[in-house]
Input
Amino acid sequence: MVNPVISVKNLKKYYSVHQKEPGLLGSIKSLFKRKYIVVKAVDGVSFKIDEGELVGFIGPNGAGKTTTLKVLSGLLYPTSGEARVLGFEPFKRQPDFQKKISLVMGQKNQLWWDLPAWETFILNKEIYEILQKRFEETVKQLARMLDVEDILKVQVRKLSLGQRMKCELIAALLHQPQVLFLDEPTIGLDVVAQKTMRDFIKEYNERFNATIVLTSHYMGDVKELCKRVIIINEGKILYDGLLTEIVEKFAPYKIIKADFEKMVDKDKLIGFGEIKNYDGLYVEIQLSKEEVAKKAAKLLSSFAVADLTIEDPAIEDIIRQVFKKGTV
Amino acid sequence: MINKYLTIFKISWQEGLVYRLNFILWRVRTILQLLLVYFIWWTVFQSQTQIFGYTQSSILTYILVSAIIRAVVLSSRATDVSNQINDGSVVNFLIKPLGFISYYFSRDLADKLLNILFVILEVSLIIVLLKPPIFLQTNPNTLILFTLAAILGILTYFCIGFVISLTAFWVENSWGPLFLMFIFLEGFGGGLFPIDILPRGVFNFLMLTPFPYLIYFPAKIYLGHFSANEIFLYFSILIFWVITLWFLMRWMVNMGLRHYTAVGH
Output
């Protein structure tokens, strides 16, 4: 059996943070005596990721996603447990390891603000000891995939957020890392830029068989990119498996959305299913999968329906349920 | 390997030259600072021929030489270090196969080279325009010692700046200690006045600290004011400081990074 690229066993990362009482008096007090509380950012997490997988980390703010990524990329020393990436222990930060991984954080940048992105690329070329020919090919290829060929020589501060993130991504990928950690790569981007980023991540994963771990707030990112998701909350894993299975398991129901031509009394809709939304001319009904065909037909025959669609429940709603329930 | 640091060198220059106005104003500031000190001493010597054992020629030479030394020794990115630690961009080093100290040292050297080119130009201009009675040191041994002292001064200043900036790993803001350092530098480094005009006891005490070795010591070597014994004694103290500060810096980098990776941000 092939060894997994990433393996994490019972990983824990605790911080102690000092707490300040509110107000000026609290500030003065905290000069002399500090109260510390322990934050369990990651609390006994285990998983394995194989080569070429594209895995999504989902969870609310402070769930431990970023902390996990930081441990895996060698930025944080684990409190206990084991983390291995490509056979290395990340926190040792050996150059051989560092040349094989990359971390992109949507809210941090490595590009030199006052210079064109191109200059940062050249610096990274030297830092990672990339050969000239391969460097040129890689930049060309990545720039074409991201459609930023014409802005590489423009001062970074003059770029839009979307352009900058794309350049950040190129800078992080010049050394063709086998493992890529993406922390909120689409944060703050507009819909078009988000789409380009997603397409790129997908293509990069397929073309280079790179292992990618991605965190995101946008379910859209995860839905489109990741077959497998790891849902994490308060430092613990709630679910680790296929995204499609979580839909099956958590949402054995469908939603009928219907527009009526004339006002329909709410009372008349009772018996079709659970009414989620209603305003007289429009209704959303949630009902079990078995019933959906029959009830939809009945709806069409009973009322003057202008439009009708049958949909799966929104993935956001399902995830919300997972968090509410606390376990799968 | 060396390419890595050469590129850092080049990119630093480019960054420095991006904003022309900023760059020019910075040079203007340096020149004004130099002229200010120059004219204060020039005025003092209008009514006297010798003060504190200095002639007009030796003090004006001291001022001009110390301007050059200042440009080379007292230029540092130390404040960048603490900023990067505080805003978390230090992560960029931790994730890459790149030495933390060597990166900043390359950046500093780049600044220093740029500075020295300009300050030599500026000082030459002052000499041509104002024709001060300067003293030209011609003894090659003295000039070698002068260069050596300046190089050790560069290392000393680099280490001091770094050590103070590294406190950012533990405290959120290292501006307090940095500010204090700048005051010590200005007062006791010898940039404004040669510190041997201070009372003997104070002077002897200061010579035990690293500060006078940044400007005062090399400038006085240039003037040829030290005896062989003094040169030996002061070089010993200076080398002691370089070694001590170097190890302290290394230790703090290791501890700091360990602390950073343990605590996280």
User: Anything to note?
Assistant: The CA atoms of residues 129 and 192 of chain A lie 34 Å apart. The first strand of chain A starts at residue 6 and ends at 19. Chain A touches chain B at residues 13, 15, 41, 67, 70, 73-77, 91, 93, 95, 98-99, 101-103, 105, 108-110, 112, 114-115, 119-120, 122-129, 155 (CB under 8 Å). The radius of gyration of chain A is 24 Å.
